[in-house]
Amino acid sequence: MHLTAQEERVLAGEEGPGRAKAMQLLVALGDIYGAERLIPIASAQVSGASFKTIGDAGIKFLEDFSEHAKVTVRTSLNPLGLDLRRWRAMGVDDDFHAKQGRIVSAYRALGVEPSYTCTPYLAGNRPRRGQHLAWAESSATVFANSYLGARTNREGGPSALAAAIIGKTAEYGLHMDGNRRPKVKIEFEEVPEGLVPLAGYLVGKIAGKRVPYIGGISMTPDQHKSFGAAMAATGAVSMYLLSSPDTRKRTDVSEVEECVHVPLSELNECAEELKGDDAWDLVAIGCPHCSEAEIRAMARFLKDKKPRDECDVWFCTSRAVYGRCPKELTVLRRFGKVLCDTCMVVSPIEKMYRRTASDSGKAMVYLPSLGRQSASFRPTRALLEAISR
Amino acid sequence: MAGKASAEAVVCSCPMSFLGGVDPVTGKILDPECESKGLSVAGKVFCFPFGKGSTVGSYSMYQLKLIGKAPAAVVNGSAEPIMATGAIISDVPMVDGVDVEMLRTGDDITVDADKGSLEVANVLEKHVVTSVVRHGDKILLLQRSRRVGSYRGQWAGVSGFIESGEDDEAAARRELEEEVGMKKAVLRKRLETQRFRDSDVVWCVHPFLFDVGRRDLELDWEHERSEWVSPADVARYPTVPGLQKVVCMLLER
Fold first, then answer.
1. Residues of chain B whose pLDDT is less than 50?
2. What does B156-203 look like in DSSP terms, one character per residue?
3. N or C terminus of chain B with fewer C-beta within 10 Å?
4. A36 phi and psi, to 5 degrees?
5. Does the CB of B25 have a partner CB in chain A at under 8 Å?
């Protein structure tokens, strides 16, 4: 990889050991992926914020690293393992809280903004078309590439942090035009509204590592969010393209090597497979974190209803969105807990619940593995009906 | 991925994750798939094809470093981001692009990550030619005599050391003439150098395929017997390491 004289100086340690280490990491990864240079980034987004996912080793690394380094571009952070204000009500224990606190302090010392969300683009860090980023959260990466038209690879936690410190990332993968062309076309016969996340779930499985070009589906921005999140969980997919009749949005399909037709029956079979139990300890909504529009829609539906109180309910969102819709949240609070800073995927859910239902395709991948839950998929509407009367 | 280290090797032939694959307290390999299960990687040159698993594995290597149980160096067939990240944040020298199959647990390895180089002190590389001589649908096998330095009594192609400064095709032709008295042979194919580890020697075999017009030959002192055999029958002879693989690759269309 070719480095500028200034980059060489950083690598040689002239700007301190923290920046040298960050530069070493960028250069090593750039070499692995065949990058020729580093390019400036508009923002970073770092994963590995929950004590549950990074453990004692992660804490130690972040604490040591934070003594020598600071981020130089806007940097958002993924959800924590708890709601910083309501962790006791969630059922998180003191030990977990103490360790989570050390992680929060280390990131603060590094200069990372305390957004604690997988949807930084709904919390003020919204990239513009064409901007280069170093984002790590898989669902945010796919949203940034596909819906917002920005450019980022799916970074690992440490590499996103290194990019944030240097303000650059290695130019490879989805930063390059040639790697953003679709390789597989996936055509849906029909996608009913509640099954959009499962359409994403299937796309990830079919596409694998390839950029998919998707037809037979049209989505609201919030549906893009849940669709992409599921895709990035079942596949190594960080970008998709939608086929559109709009000629100005014409896509170069010359590299499409396979066309896959997905009949409605396959989507329904997938829903059936992921249906799981009918009795749950927890209903968890908000993976990715709920948007304002989603919270308003749920509040509208629940406003004149009463809670059934048969199981716990979590509505997960970002602190930023939380502050914007206080009236609606009052409605949701009658039915369950509104949690910020965390979610069902990265919190220590296995210590509190065994059976969890969610409307998220992404959660169907991580609840059984990371969360050790018996997981049940239901469309949002079905979950709201189940928790109200 | 900078720095140097010299230590004994611990070799795994399977992909490895530091999260779950290595005990975070003792540094011992836990992976049940691994032939080196139970060995500690602490202070050793840890060799495996490539890393796998969750990005948390990067932090797990850092954790081992903090308690003094990290490997002295990591040697990989191909580098991938999780392992590279772990090595950098933990200051563990790492080299990649190494054929890990050529390494054995216990080897005395020196890694220089700045140069990307690796030396195995107890292993000698020996470059040899081996020619498969074909006539019609048969190939020539020679049984090595009791007077040769290695692989006595075993069956081989027409082979010998490449002398210092010698071109490998010239060496192959010289051996054909010396060992079996064949001067007229048509070169049909040659392969990239193949490596075979046998105790403390890595044989770097330069394989050639020659066609000859006649089957009569004159054996020198290096061989006891010769036989023209069908390629499929090579497996039935006790051969020098890797011969069957080389024959298959040379005769592949």
1. none
2. ESEEEEPPTT--HHHHHHHHHHHHH-----EEEEE-PPEEEEETTEEE
3. C
4. -100, -20
5. no
* Nearest C-alpha neighbor of A61 from the set A28, A32, A21, A31: A21
Say what the pLDDT of residue B19 is. Answer: 78
> Of the candidates A176, A191, A213, which is a domain's last residue?
A176
Report percent pLDDT > 70 for chain A: 99
Chain B residue closest in CA terms to A30: B81
Based on the residue annotation, tell me whether B90 is a catalytic residue of this protein: no
pLDDT at B121: 96
- Residue A250: pLDDT band (50, 70, 90) is confident
Contacts of B88 in chain A (CB under 8 A): 21, 24-25, 28
**Looking at residue B102, which CATH number applies to its domain?**
3.50.30.10
Given A237, A272, A307, the domain boundary residue is: A272
Mean pLDDT of A55-68: 92
- Residue A153: CB partners within 8 Å, gap ≥ 6? A134, A141, A169, A172, A173, A174, A175, A238
The answer to whether the CB atoms of A156 and B85 lie below 8 A apart is yes
**Does one domain contain both A261 and A371?**
no
Same-domain check for residues A326 and A215: no
Question: What's the residue count for chain A?
Answer: 389
What is the secondary structure of B49-102 as a DSSP string? Answer: S-B-S-THHHHHHHHHHHTT-S-SEEEESS--HHHHHHHHHTT--EE-S--GGG
Of B52, B85, B120, which residue sits at a domain end? B120
pLDDT in tens, A254-308: 999 999 999 999 999 999 999 998 999 999 999 999 999 999 999 999 999 999 9
Q: Does A60 touch chain B (CB under 8 A)?
A: yes
Q: Cβ B59–A159 below 8 Å, yes or no?
A: no
Contact A28 B79 (CB under 8 A): yes
Report long-range pairs for B113-117 (Cβ below 8 Å, ≥24 apart): B113/B1, B113/B2, B113/B3, B113/B4, B113/B73, B114/B2, B114/B3, B114/B4
Q: Is A19 on the interface with B (CB under 8 A)?
A: no
B130 & B196 share domain:
yes
pLDDT score, position B60: 86
A180 in contact with chain B, both atoms CB, cutoff 8 A? no
Q: Inter-chain contact B56–A58, Cβ cutoff 8 Å?
A: yes
pLDDT grade for A244, boundaries at 50, 70 and 90 = confident
Q: What is the CATH number of the domain that holds B164?
A: 3.90.79.10
B-chain CB neighbours of A58 within 8 Å are 56, 59
- Whether the CB of B79 is below 8 Å from some CB of chain A: the reply is yes
Q: What is the pLDDT of residue A248?
A: 66
Same structural domain, A186 and A304: no
Q: Which domain holds residue A237?
A: 181-272
C-alpha to C-alpha distance for B3 and B106, rounded to whole angstroms: 21
CB contact under 8 A, B55 and A48: yes
pLDDT value of position A247: 61
Is B18 near chain A, with CB under 8 Å? no
Report how far residue A133's alpha carbon sits from residue A141's, in angstroms, rounded to the nearest whole number.
9
Question: What would the two tokens of residue A380 be?
Answer: 């949002």
All residues of chain B having their beta carbon less than 8 Å from the beta carbon of residue A11 are none
Range of the domain at B33: 4-120
Candidates A80, A86, A59, A47; CA nearest to A346 is: A80
